[in-house]
Amino acid sequence: ELVEALAEQNQPQILAGKSILITAGPTQEAIDPVRYLSNHSSGKMGYALAIAAQKLGATVTLVSGPTRLNPPAGCEFIGVKSAQQMYDAVMQQVDKHNVFIGCAAVADYRVDEVMSQKIKKDNDKLSLTFVKNPDILASVAALPKPPFTVGFAAETHDLSHYAQDKLKRKKLNMIAANDVSDTSIGFNSDHNALSIFWPGGQQRLAKNNKDMLAYQLLTLMNQHYDNA
Amino acid sequence: ELVEALAEQNQPQILAGKSILITAGPTQEAIDPVRYLSNHSSGKMGYALAIAAQKLGATVTLVSGPTRLNPPAGCEFIGVKSAQQMYDAVMQQVDKHNVFIGCAAVADYRVDEVMSQKIKKDNDKLSLTFVKNPDILASVAALPKPPFTVGFAAETHDLSHYAQDKLKRKKLNMIAANDVSDTSIGFNSDHNALSIFWPGGQQRLAKNNKDMLAYQLLTLMNQHYDNA
Prior knowledge:
The structure is a homodimer.
Chain A: H1 2-8, E1 19-24, E2 29-30, E3 35-39, H2 44-55, E4 59-64, E5 76-79, H3 83-93, E6 99-102, E7 109-111, E8 125-132, H4 136-141, E9 148-155, H5 159-169, E10 174-179, E11 191-198, E12 201-209, H6 210-225
Parallel strand pairs in A: 1-4, 1-6, 4-5, 6-9, 9-10
Antiparallel strand pairs in A: 2-3, 7-8, 10-11, 11-12
């Protein structure tokens, strides 16, 4: 109810004049015309960020993999399936934006060669070789004039270690880490808890619904935006 | 509208006294806590069969992989994720049923060893070895006292050849083949067209919505039931 109350009030337009590019959801990597590789991202966190950013005054472009959610009203929406399609859409859009939030659970790998016909199950064993997908976050942060770049890390162990390593290695401005091994939060849940890291600092956002966490994360992002 | 009209009339109870076990949807094969392998089955055909079978007087048990659909009212519903879970549920239920309709798009393979932690993307390439899942249809048809067993075949090429081969090899009573390479029908579509094969005969059910096809397939199944 708090969220609805907030939404119905006039929000302080702290993001007025900012244009934010957000990715959300999983990607789907085809193996053949029937089979695919994906992950358990529901898209809820990214969609909550898109809705909250608009309410705080930002212009929003949402690039989303396949989810069960409806495109939020008011934002520019680009639906994609594969990591390569998401990379292409982001790279085409990024110049028009001040902030990039990579919230999608992008598949790290795709199959080496997509089969045009359904693979028959003639063999007792099947071996597939996967190659790396382009790294969207790192590519955005490595642009000559990068936007303020916020990443997400979904980890099942050593959360803080991997998140801080990812922040440095990919030269991000901020990273939000959540522990997907806790099934009461994270993937598919309406709730989450985030540890936010930036160069030289960190803050814990305690368990809350994803709508409230979106407001908190955007507020924190905005505080650090001017120092970047 | 025809379907709704049919549904609101009293249906001829041609399946009265029969107990039908139906599988539907895709299966989801975990790779690690985050990633999975699946396929594009929506579950619509299997759910349509469950609803139609009840309206025609049957008692229905529906074993379903993860779909976006609501469990049909009135049937016994068992939700599963993996092919192994679907196999276990079917084998536990099958003795209580006269008819088994395997409409699910069961993953033929699962990864050799599911990782308990998220696989890190340290390597440029990733190789995964898949092993065969149990064959639910063939296992049911090979039981000492098998139910009347109907399979489905989703093929992208040589439809009739593969379907008839599957009918014989797995000792099914009937098989329904649909061409998933035509995107106007099949996976995720509300429409389908089926070629039905049984030992010594075949019939084409022309493109129609899945609700009507369900009635037609069940009627055809019932005609052949007594000869089995």
